[in-house]
Structure formats: C-alpha cells, structure tokens
From TrEMBL:
Protein name, per record: Penicillin-binding protein
GO biological process entries: cell wall organization
Keyword Membrane appears in the UniProt entry: yes
Domain of life: Bacteria
Subcellular locations according to the entry: Membrane
Lineage: Bacteria, Pseudomonadati, Bacteroidota, Flavobacteriia, Flavobacteriales
Location, primary (coarse class): membrane
Organism: Maribacter cobaltidurans
CC terms in the record's Gene Ontology section: plasma membrane
Keywords tagged on the record: Carboxypeptidase, Hydrolase, Membrane, Protease
Amino acid sequence: MPATDKSILSRLYIVAACLVVFAGAVLFKLVSIQVVDGEKYMALAETRTTKMFTIAPNRGNLYSDDGSLLATSVSKYNIHFDAVTVSEKDFKENVKPLSDALAKLFNKESSHYQQILRKARQNQNRYALIARNLDYSEYMAVKGFPLFEKGPFKGGIVIEQSTKREHPLGKIAERSVGYERVDEKGYHTRVGMEGAFSEYLSGIEGKRSKVKIAKNQWKPIGYDNIVEPKDGYDVYSTIDINIQDIAHHALLRQLEHYKADHGTVIVMETKTGEVKAISNLGRTSEGKYYERLNYAIGESHEPGSTFKLVNLVAALEDKVIDTSTVVDTEKGKWKIYNHYVRDSKNGGYGKISVAKAFEVSSNTAFAKIIHNNYKENPEKYVNRLMSMDIHKQLGLPVKGEGKPVLRYPGDKGWSGLSLAQMAYGYEVAMTPLQTLAFYNAIANDGELIKPRLIKEVKEWNKTVKKFDKEVLNPSICSKETAKKVQQLLKDVVEQKHGTGHGLYSPNFSMAGKTGTCQKNYVSKDPDKLKYISSFAGYFPADNPKYSCIVVIHEPDKSVGYYGADVSGPVFKSIAQKIYATSPLTDEVDVKEAFENRLEEAYQDYYANIQKQYKEVPNVRGMSGMDAISILENLGLEVEVKGNGKVKNQSISKGTDLNKVKKIVLELS
C-alpha cells in the first residue's frame, strides 16, 4: 500500500476516534443531567416558569363604639383574558355573547369588547385587560358571563384581587383613625388606631401560585390559593361618631372664625377613660383645615393657666395654703428678681382668697403662692408634682405620644424664676391628652385613669380580647382636696367674676379652667408673639359624665386670643349638643332605648333583604363572614365547615327559599 494511502487512513482513524470520544462525552453529560442533576435543573426550570406570590389578607374592620364603620377593607378585582387557553370553537361561539354581556354591565358598545377579545386572540395575548377595579357584585357577574363561566383554563378568565382601605367618615377623625403603609423597602409607617392595633387588624398572608406568561407578567394558576389568607380581626374602638361629629364641626367653626393655625379637641368618658371624640385640624396655605397631625397626643407644649389646677392641688396637699388663704396681687404686677409677673387685669385684684385667685386666674397670686412656699425647698414642690404622675407619659398604644417636660432643681434650664414661672404654666410642657387626664382625675375624686381608644377585638361575634379600664394612679390627691378644687372649677363658670362665666348656662352645668399661654415670648418683636388658647374641664359639674379639652394655637390676635373667648365656646357647644342629642339620663334607660332602636333597624334591614332575594343566592367565593350574614338574614340556618372563603354550598343557587331551612357551607 502506498505511503499516501496509509497516511489518509491514519487520519480517518483519528477523526473517527475523536467523534467516538465526543459522542461519549455528550452521552455522559446527558445521563448526568438526567440522573445526577435532574432534580436541580427541574427545580430551576420550575422557578423560572412558576412563582409563589403572597396574597395580602383583608384587614379587619375598625368600628366605632356603636358598630359604625370607621375603616374597612374593600375588595377590588381586575379581569384579564388569556386568549391562548381558549379553544377555537369556544372562542367563536362565545365572543359575541361575552362582548354583549360586558357592554351591558359597563355601559359600552359590544364592538369595543369584541375588538379587544379578537385582537388578543390574534396576538396570542395571555393577559389582555378587560375591566379594572370591580366591586364584588360586578366581579361575580363577570364570572358568570359566557365563556368566562368555563373558568381560567377553558374560559381564559384571569382574576386579580386587591384590597383598598376606605374611611366611611371621610376626613372626620382621619388622623386618629390613621393608617398603615409599607414602602418599597418593607418599612412600615403606622399612624393612629390603624397603626396602633395593626397586630389585630393585619391578618395572615396567603400564598398563590402564578405562571410566567411574558416579561414581568404572571398569570394566577386556577381559582384556588395554595394557602388561604386569614383575614384580620375586627377592632371596636371607643369613638362615638355622634360626639365625634359634634366635636369636629365645633372646632372647625372656631378655627375658621379666629383664623388659627391649628387646634385639637378631645372628649373622654370620665369614669372609664374611653375617648369618645378626638379631632385634630391644621390650616393649609389656602386657609382650609384638615387632619394634618395628631396634636392631641403628639404635641407637647406649655399649658399656661390650665396648669394652675395642678399647682393648686399640690399646694393644698402640702397644706401650705387653704382655699381661704389671702394673697396680695399687688396691683396686678409682682417683681421677682429682674422679672415682672403680670395679671391680665390692669391694676390687679387687690387682696383676694386663693379660691378667688383661681377663679379669676391671677398669675401674680399663683406665682407668689408657689415661689414663697417652696423657694427654700423646691425639691418638695417638684416631688409633689411627680407623685401626681405629671412627669410621666400615659403609655398609649398610638405612636408618637409627646413627652411631658418637668424640670428638677439643678437641671439645665432651672433658675430662680422657675417656681414662679411654673406656677402659671410656663417652663413645663404637656400634651392636651395628658392635661385632660389630670382634669379627668379630679372629676373622679383623684383617680387617674389611662385614656383608652379600644374596647375589644372580635372575630365575627367572638371576643378575642377585651380592654377594660386601667388605673394609672388610684389617688393623685386626697378626696378632700379633690372636692375643694371641684367646687372651684365649678365656680370658674358659675361665679360672675370667673374667667369662664361667659360660658355659663342655667340649662346645664359645666366645670373647667381657662388658659391663655404666650408662644415665642422670648422674642422682643411683638408681631412674633403668638398665643395658645385652651379650656379644660368636665360636665355635668356635679356628676361628671364627660371630660373635655380644647386647645387652639395661634388665633388671629386682632379677632381674639383669650382661652375663655377662643376655646371656651367650643367646649360649651360640645357640652350643649351632647345634652341636646343624648340627655345624660339613667344609663339603663339609655341602653334600653338604644337596643329598641337597634332592633327596629335590624327588622327593617331583614325585610329589605328578603324583598331582594326569593331564591338561594350563590355565595361561592365570598368570605365566610359575608356569606353567613347574607344567608342568616334570609332566615336560613347556616352550618360552617372550615375557615376562609366559601368553596361549596349544600343548596345550589336558584333554589326556592321557602323550600330550604338549613344550608351547609364548606370553606377553603
């Protein structure tokens, strides 16, 4: 054999050997992928085509004390169309009937929907938008339309559910009702009652599997969730919507009249500490008012003359004075070191009793009482205030409670003037709610109660947790002292010389104290001097039912700024309207009357429901709570199995109600 032929043959052998080795390597790799790494690559492929999504549960409802909604979650639905899963036969038969049904429901032309559906079919679109933000009744109607009734696989319907939080009262108490928001980084912002009680309202997330159909587009797989979300509990607050409405509008009118910067009002039930109304209104650049910040809880400021009650109680408890002790107001101006303390009345009040000094709100009298009796031992004075818990926060569940300011001798800011300044509400700071809690304690003969915004947490009609009265201090002062200052608070309004006498009415009694505090008083520019006007007290005077505080910041000085003129009328308006709309009679009578009205309302509601339904409705897909409510209102006995949403019902829709007594619901 020639050398050339041998060379060619050798090369062929080499090529053949290489091919055999390559084929072996490919075969080995295929076996390795299939057998050794099979599960790994199958899992990877699965994650790239399907993905588990979380489903936000419905937040529980937030109610007022009578069961009226303050905040609720409303389900909204988006409907898309998967044009790929539908057979050609089903599409041709149903495209026209489906378009007609959609057009009738949404008040559009049938051709509009035919164009959307046909275009989706032509482009093999698996996520064509049909309708957005549907409510539950609209969603249930669309599910029953031609083609869509065949479900997600044969009918091509793709359903996306979301929830929206709504406040039926609108802007009233918006800040107190609050909200919970989560940003893109997962940071939670919790405000008001919604934020404070989020652990009960939130619920537990569910899981839903979705398949990837295009870039950043995921289609839910089937109707059912992998894990059903668990709805949050319902929270019943202490807010009385009638009193809330009264307080809101009384404050708003006064803010508008005095062109004030902002203001707050709180109404609290005296014996229980239940907050019945809390309104916070701030002024916009256009002169309108809205719930800007929770001033009632979060804004700590110098209280001014409303703090004289604290000082009066302290001095009486330490027995350095009595209400009959005489004090010389020195023509309304008293010099201490290089500082002058002045009364609002030129020329002062002469020599007057401590009782009258309180009723006329004499700054000079109170400055002399506190300074002269405690200057040798200022620690005794501050310790007495601390024994009344003036320095402590109330420990509210709502975020952002302001911190009280109460300096101790030797602290930064303490000076020889501090006792005199603190005597009439300067160099100290409290929030409106903290001040109200003290006044409420006096109305309760010295028992300091923690203000409360929540009554109980419920799951349907089952109580999960109940919140009762909480006593912070059983006795901030003796009952003897409490009785003395109760009379003086009453005299502030009833006596002709009292600063609150302009609020007096023979038809109902009130007790309280006015307060007028300067802001920016360190400035020498008179134009920068602003005021805080307040009134704190309770009503009725002799058997208190409610305590109330009104604080208005920076009223227009040209219109007025004294607490008796600015804040006092709000207090009176609230008390007057509460008397008029719900007379403070025996609680048993009120409860019985309320229950009678409630029963009448329920009967009317049931009658309307029964007029609407003559057949068993379809409740599949509804939450168990909603389904039970509807069916029981129709007079049916309902048996429930499981939790979540209705998966099956034992009696089919359309069955004559007169032939049915009991229905069994199977929940997923």
